[in-house]
């Protein structure tokens, strides 16, 4: 079922939400699991406050919904609603994100200039 909020979200708002690497990873994890996930399962390397901001942006873009179960919050990806508003968009973006993630995993850890061996 499409919510009124999802139907009226401008495309640039949805794309902006998905353009951030942290939010895209959150959406990718939700899509992979296809079920509501506890918030802490959706992010690494950012503070809880920063994650809360990212969750708010995703909700306002009509991409996710927060479900509170007692003291536990869970995030749900609104796949059907997004597909109804923008057919094929989410699948295309997530396919590209999966390819990028697979490439990063295959390449292994990146070497930074501080880690690079010194040449004489």
Protein topology:
Layout: H1 4-7, H2 11-19, H3 21-33, E1 37-38, H4 48-60, E2 64-69, E3 72-77, H5 79-85, H6 89-107
Antiparallel strand pairs: 1-3, 2-3
Helix pairs in contact: 2-4
What would the keywords be for this entry?
single chain, 120 residues, mainly alpha, Arc Repressor Mutant, subunit A, 6 helices, 54% helix, 12% strand, disordered C terminus
Explain what the structure shows.
It is a single chain. The chain is mainly alpha-helical. The chain has one domain (4-100): Arc Repressor Mutant, subunit A (Orthogonal Bundle). Helices cover 54% and strands 12% of the residues. The chain has six helices and three strands; from the N terminus they run αααβαββαα. It has helices at residues 4-7, 11-19, 21-33, 48-60, 79-85, 89-107, and strands at 37-38, 64-69, 72-77. The protein has a three-stranded antiparallel sheet. A hairpin with a 2-residue loop joins strand 2 and strand 3 (72-77). Helix 2 (11-19) runs antiparallel to helix 4 (48-60). The termini are far apart. Mean pLDDT is 86; it is low at 112-120.
